Structure formats: C-alpha cells, structure tokens
Amino acid sequence: MYSSYINGKWTAMGENFETTSPVTNKPFATVIGCDAEDARAAIKAAKTAFPLWSGLSAEERSHYLIKVAEALEEMVEEIEDILIDEVGSWIGKAKFECLTTPKLFRAAADLAKTVKGYELVSPAGKKSMVVKEPMGVVSVITPWNMPLNLSSRTTSSILAVGNTVILKPAELSPLSGGWVLAKAFEKAGVPKGVFNVLLCSKQNVEKVGDVMVTDPSIKAISFTGSTGVGKHIAAKAGGLLKKVSMELGGKDAMIILDDADLDIAVNAAVFASFNHSGQICMGTKRIYVHEKLTTEFTDRFVAKTKKLGYGDVRDLNKPIAPLINETQIRKIDEQVIDAVAKGATVLAGGKRDGMYYLPTILTGVTSNMSTFDEEAFGPLVSIYVFSTIEEAIDQVNASKYGLSGAVITRDTVKGYEVARKIESGMCHVNDGTIYAEALAPFGGVKNSGIGRYGGQASIDSFTTTKWITIADKGIQYPPAFME
Known about the structure:
CATH superfamily of the largest domain: Aldehyde Dehydrogenase, Chain A, domain 1
Distance between the termini: 74 Å
C-alpha cells in the first residue's frame, strides 16, 4: 500500500484506489488516496516550513538537493521497475529517465547559488537594488508520461530558489510521479513540510486540484499536462492574481529542407515520432518534406518505422511501448479512422495489437481531418509536401500549438533563419523535436503553454522581484511638506 507524504509523514486516511499496468492490463498498485482536507494539511505544512527553508543559505539548500540526487541513484533498480510496470515505459526510456533525473537535482543545487539581484544607478543618489525572493508555497501538478523526470524538473528548481512544494502527480502514475520522490526526500533528510506529495484518485482530483489552486497560501502554480486542463487552471488562478507556469500540449513539426542529409532526417524523424510510442508532448507529429526529397525520405522513413519492435518492454531491441490505457488507444484509432475515411493513406501501422498501437504514418492529411490539428498523444505522424521554405513555415505556424520544432538542413545558417521564423518555444537544427537540457529555458507558445522551466528561466518563474532603495541621509522634500 502506498500513501501521500505530508509534513514528513506517510499519511493513511483516505479511500484506496488501484492503478492498472499498461504492460499487463492488470492492477499494479493499491494506493491510499488523499482528499481536500489532506491537501489543506499539506499546504499548512509547507507554509510552516517556508521560513526555515527560505532562510537556509544557498549552500545548505544545495546540500539537500544533492542528497536527493544521491538517494534517487541508490533506488535506480526499484525506480526502473516502477516506470516500466506503472506507465509502460520501454526499458531504454526508463533507464534514460533514471539517469537524467538525478542530474536535474544536481543542476538545481548549482542553480540555488546563482539567484542574484543587481544594482541600479539612482539619479537621486540612493543605493538602489533589485533582489529576487522566493514566493512561498508552490503547487506542482504533473502528468503520467515522463512522471519522474517531469515532477523532478519542476520541483527541483522551485525548491532551489527557496520555495516549498505541494506535488500532485497524475492519478495514473502516483508511484513514479510522486511516491518515489517522497522516498528520496525522506532518505535525504530534507526538513519536514518542505516537500509534500498528494496521491489522488480520479474521483478526488478536481477537489484536491481546486484546493491546490485557490488556497490563499498558494502563491504560484506549475502545471504540465493537457491544454484543456491548463486553460481551466489558468483561468481560475488568473482570477486570483496567482502566477502560473504551464507546459501544455503540442503538435510539433519537423521541416526537412531540400539540402537535408537524409540519414539525419530519417533517424531524427523515427526517434522523435515514436519514442515512448509518441506519448511525449514534444514528439514529432507533423513532418514537412521538400518535394525534391519526398519520395526517398518517405520510403526510408516507412521502412525504418516498420522495423521497430514491440511486445516486450524489457527488451532493449523493442522500443515501442504500450499506450497508457484504452482511452488513449481509442483516441489514436479514431483519428486514423477519420483520416482514412476522408481520403488519407496509411503508409505504416494504423492498427492496434493489444495495448500497443503500431507506429503509424499518414499521408494526404487535410484540414477537415481531426488529426490535422488535434494533439495525437500516441505513435501517429503525418507527412506533408512543400515546394518553398515560406510555404513550409506558413503551414507549420498555422497550428494552434507551438512547443518544439526541428529543421533538417546542411546549411546551418539557413536552418537558424528558419528556426527563428517557426512559432515555437524551442527549435532544433539537425535534430528531432525531442530535446531538453537542465539549464535551458523549456516551454512553448500559443496553446502549448506559458512560462519557462530551467536555469535562469526557473528563477524568473518562481521568484518575486523586489526593488529596494536606501538613502544614507534624509530626503529633501518640497518645503510645503517640511513646515
């Protein structure tokens, strides 16, 4: 049995709920769920812990974050198994997540030492300073697809700058998205109340989420997930004048220019389209190929895609993972069926095998098809043809999303120019759309989010800016006020 972690203790007061493994399609874990009262208790604990945590030196907070990283490294075998069984991670993806997550905490440990203000030249002769201060208690709500990594990415930097945290992982990934981290924080000896985890069933998610947004003690909200839920949270938080940082959905595009190295293009397209079976927000969903290269690229892309193995997530040679649940399979299948009915052609995949959906490539997709601009959170990608760079950029930018982008070209100067014109929060030349670095600003534009994570961007997102002036001598006010 697994439970929430509040004020340094494992709580066991709510109703049980079960998670289902997409690998076996059978119950995986029994969890003691939390409710709104537990959420309020966690917020109270975090508020109480805030003065102590924010009052520590940067070196002291760094010490604790490094301890968390070390604890995660000690738990790696257990975490890999949980990632595989709970969310259907292919073992290669699970190993990657376990390798990169401790690095996020180590990067945050360094980040804590870089929170700096600056001085201004005051025309009044005062000492004029701008300082960065922690905000207080921050709510963090994370998704199931990269549960450990995404919970850690946000949490580590928020704590580094002196805030305390309430984390609610997705109800589909309570262990890998929250429980694992709580165990690491407990092992690291982080003071009680600094980091709290709420494991919540689907039945209670709205009530718990509402408290995490509306409680007066919550000063900011970090959300990673669907655009629809993000808009709902942002609307509620905006009415309360609370700061939000959100990474939302994507319909990410790759542009393959006429001078592209096709080895790079095909490899990048296969990886970015089908890693974790496309269940990644920055996965490639649209590929725009210059007419000169369309036939050769498509033939090679389809051939390589059809060779991707599946059926055993613990086999490093079978990278295609099961989809998280029946709902996601139906959503992908409905988009494919709709596209085919309206004239699209399936070049690969287009069908399921148990909990797996075969990597699917479509061509002939038009604007009247649901997959044209709806996010496809699965192994589904469409190929489009263009004749001019301007045409490709216009088509890419017509989407309501703008998370990540990619440009493949031998002319890196041209690639940079195209990347600048793509409406996205991130863009990579001669790489796929899936790429992140701990200290780089990560986030999107349009319906893909607001705010950024990573490095200085995290400092800006999760601190307040205060202006302080000091006058060595009294100020000379107008004589009328001095009588």
